[in-house]
Structures are given as structure tokens and as C-alpha cells.
Amino acid sequence: MLYAVVDIETTGGYASGNGITEIAILIHDGVSVINSFETLINPRQYIPDHIEALTGISNDMVANAPVFADVASEIYDLLHDKVFVAHNVNFDFSFIKHNLSEAGYDLQCNKLCTVRLSRKILPGHKSYSLGKLCAALKISLNNHHRAGGDAKATAELLSMLLQNDSEGLIHQSLKSTSKEQALPPNLPKSEIDKLPLTPGVYYFKDEKGKVIYIGKAKTLKKRVCSHFSGNNAGKQRQDFLKNIYSVDFEVCGTELMAFILEATEIKRLWPENNRALKRYEQKYALYSFEDQKGYLRLGIDTFKKNMPVLYSFNTILEGHHILRILIKDHFLCEKLCYIQKNRIACTGHEEGSCSGACVGKESAPAYNVRVKYAIEQLKSMLPSFAVIDAGRTEDEQSCILVEQGKLYGMGYISQYADVNAPDLLKSALKVYPSNDYIMHLILTHTEQYPQKRIAV
């Protein structure tokens, strides 16, 4: 088996927006280096000052160097039938695969990460950065942050790993069934091994334990691993993977419960890498309030988090539809409900469907009685039901409780619990906030599976 030990220097941290400035490839036969390739590369873009200070590679040095396409064929021939080895392999691989693809080559090969292997085969070191690890292991590292120097040190590290691999971890990593080399460099495989094959919500955490991403899954292990497949060379993905140090999770009885928990947790923790659900906000709501003359008024306004809401919706049209039903059924004043403006009296008063609250002909107490009946009708129009489904074990069942069109809560109950007793259900459930997004999920699910919906 031949290994291609690779190191590159670049203009920045992600392949799609940066270039390679230097590459070194050492062919290792499992004992020693038998062939080598090294060259500067003209990245066809400016090398930032801080990169030049780190690597010593200047814009003048690469001005007359070959562009990657000029050496792509030679690089592909060296790599395509070898095991690709690097310290933090997915970084180097993403750059080289991206640049080879731009030149018309599709690189497909096994990968080994000397960071991950060192953590397993040579445990107990404070740091696994190449510089500090080489110092601890007394591996000579000359010309650090230059491709040739770092590749040579990585090749020596590979030799040491091969010699000390008493448990055959390298061979296991190269099996077609092993996905370990696709994992982020700082995420132990044990974090993946602990994930169950059940629905749930997972939490990616950084080095300090801060949640940086929340996701939901029908099958936790499969979904988490899917984040690490592919070779997206963009900055967002590369930074995201680099910062994953651990995975936490919460098992849910059903995928629907995972959807609800995910939406709630994203709003609660606000992880930096969750964007879609963070942008979701309810748009409009129906409110009631008492004006200065004592009249109860119904009105549609933009959704406000800290105000009690009668009903929320995403389009003005939907809100007006509901409000007009209440006006018609309870002879309410369109002007006091903000349907009509710039009139002394509403048209309903002229037609006889409004008793004149808009012009003071009907007293506030008399008018307010009908408004209260309208609010009660609205509540009766909004459904109350439970969604009963599989639990986390055979001894329980899951329950999602909706009360008057809003999520009350969810949790797990006995197979023998009386689902027609709402108060008993509530005592067993955890309360969750409700919004239109969550209710849309629930209602869509119950339309698809009406047998799971039980009126309460």
C-alpha cells in the first residue's frame, strides 16, 4: 500500500475562494519516503500580508511559478491510486480536489488524517497541532508552515503511527465501511458511536461546549454523519466542520416531535450556524383591547412577542377573513374593528347590521357583550386535539397537545392513559411555545395521518 503524504500552503481558509501557493507530495511505502514532488504555485490572486508573514511565501516568489492547471496532471497521477494522508486531511483534500476538478480531474481516493490517528494511537498529548505534536514526539520540523517542511514531518509522524498501531486502527480506518476519515478533525469517533438510530434532535458543540448548530433527524446517526459527506469547498462549511468538537442529542418518539423540539431549541439557543428557522417570524395577529371610551376593539396588527394574541397568521387576507366572520356573526362594528376607516359611521350602521357603536348610539357595555361572544366563537373555531403516536420505548406513547389552535406541549404518556382527559394529559406534558410554523407542521401531519388525531 502506498501513501501520498500531502501538505499545501494557501491564500486563505477555504478552497472555493482561495488559491494554493505551494504543494508538497511525499510518496510513502509504509516504511519510508520513496518519491517526492514539491513546487510553488501561482494562485492568481493576492497573498494577504498575514499569510505571507506566516508562510514566508510572497507575491514575488509565486509570480513566475506554474498555475495549478499546469501541474494538475502530475499531481493527479501521484494521488489518484494512493491513500491521501495529511494533518487535518479534509482541509488539504478539499483544496486539491477542488483545483483538480477545475482542471478536469475527478480525484477519488481513501484518506487518512494524522490528527485523528494521533489522538487514538498516541493519546495523552496536550495539543495535536503539527508543531506541538512534533516537539513532543521529537520529530524534526524544519521550515514549519512551508509545504515541504510540514509534509516531511507528517511523513515521519505517519511512520511512527504505522509502527505503533498495535490495534490495527489504520487498517480499520481504510475499510470501505469506515467513515471516520470523513469526520471533522476535532470530533472523536466515540461521539458518533453513541448516536442511536432513532428520531431526535442533535446539538453540535464547539471546543468550549457552546452549541453552534441544532438539527432534527428521523435517524440521528445517519443524519449527523450526512453533514460530513461531500467535499463542499466553501468557507462556511469548512469553518463549521473545524469548530465541531462534540455532539449531544435528545431522543424523540417521532420525527414530528423532533421538528417541534428543533424549532423551539433554535429559538431558545440561537446557534450561529442555524439560519432558516432563525429568520422565521409570525407576521400578523388579531388582538383585542379596550379603547378610551370603554369599547372592546378587535384589530389586526403585526405580530408582537409580548402582547396577548387571539389568533396569529401570515397573511392579512387570512386575518381579514376570520375577522369578517366574527363581525357578521355578532353584528360588530367594522369601524371599531379597523376594517373601515375615514368614515363617521360604518356602512354596517347604515345597513342595520351595526347598532351604532361607531357613532356612540350603542353603549360600550352593550357592544362589549357581543365582542366577548365573538372571542369565544373564535376560540371554538380553533381546534383542540391530541396527536398520539409511538413513544421512545414500547411501554409509552408520545402525545402532542393542541389547545384552541395553539401547541400546549408534548411528552410521553402510558399506553393506558386516558387521552380524553385534557387536565390529566397536561400534567404529563412539558409546555412548549407555539407559533405558526409549529402549528403548520402539526396540522400538515394530522392531515396526512388523521388516525393519529384525537379530539379532546
TrEMBL record:
<dbReference type="InterPro" id="IPR036397">
    <property type="entry name" value="RNaseH_sf"/>
</dbReference>
<dbReference type="Pfam" id="PF00929">
    <property type="entry name" value="RNase_T"/>
</dbReference>
<dbReference type="InterPro" id="IPR012337">
    <property type="entry name" value="RNaseH-like_sf"/>
</dbReference>
<dbReference type="InterPro" id="IPR006054">
    <property type="entry name" value="DnaQ"/>
</dbReference>
<comment type="function">
    <text>DNA polymerase III is a complex, multichain enzyme responsible for most of the replicative synthesis in bacteria. The epsilon subunit contain the editing function and is a proofreading 3'-5' exonuclease.</text>
</comment>
<dbReference type="InterPro" id="IPR035901">
    <property type="entry name" value="GIY-YIG_endonuc_sf"/>
</dbReference>
<protein>
    <submittedName>
        <fullName>DNA polymerase-3 subunit epsilon</fullName>
    </submittedName>
</protein>
<dbReference type="InterPro" id="IPR047296">
    <property type="entry name" value="GIY-YIG_UvrC_Cho"/>
</dbReference>
<dbReference type="GO" id="GO:0003887">
    <property type="term" value="F:DNA-directed DNA polymerase activity"/>
</dbReference>
<dbReference type="GO" id="GO:0008408">
    <property type="term" value="F:3'-5' exonuclease activity"/>
</dbReference>
<dbReference type="GO" id="GO:0003677">
    <property type="term" value="F:DNA binding"/>
</dbReference>
<dbReference type="GO" id="GO:0045004">
    <property type="term" value="P:DNA replication proofreading"/>
</dbReference>
<feature type="domain" description="GIY-YIG">
    <location>
        <begin position="197"/>
        <end position="275"/>
    </location>
</feature>
<dbReference type="GO" id="GO:0005829">
    <property type="term" value="C:cytosol"/>
</dbReference>
<comment type="subunit">
    <text>DNA polymerase III contains a core (composed of alpha, epsilon and theta chains) that associates with a tau subunit. This core dimerizes to form the POLIII' complex. PolIII' associates with the gamma complex (composed of gamma, delta, delta', psi and chi chains) and with the beta chain to form the complete DNA polymerase III complex.</text>
</comment>
<dbReference type="Pfam" id="PF01541">
    <property type="entry name" value="GIY-YIG"/>
</dbReference>
<dbReference type="InterPro" id="IPR013520">
    <property type="entry name" value="Ribonucl_H"/>
</dbReference>
<dbReference type="GO" id="GO:0006289">
    <property type="term" value="P:nucleotide-excision repair"/>
</dbReference>
<dbReference type="InterPro" id="IPR000305">
    <property type="entry name" value="GIY-YIG_endonuc"/>
</dbReference>
